[in-house]
């Protein structure tokens, strides 16, 4: 049962004539749902190179069919995301990023 979309479960006890004998409505809570263990995103083979303009860097790599790159530049350490996490947004993010561009 996908409890994110389907929060309610109706459990019916029926007799041999398929008539309801008893019923229980269950409203799911977070504790009723098994959450899959997070999987750390695998390392992307990417290499930094000096950019073409002053004070720039470019990154070279390739992506799978239908995917694209996103870059995030930060003055603080960026934690490794899990597979399935949303792409970063906000300050310092370029989405999409073209490999080899400054």
UniProtKB/TrEMBL annotation:
Signal peptide: none annotated. Residues 76-102 are annotated as: Disordered. It comes from the Bacteria. Residues 1-30, 50-102 form the S-layer protein SbsC C-terminal domain. This is S-layer protein SbsC C-terminal domain-containing protein.
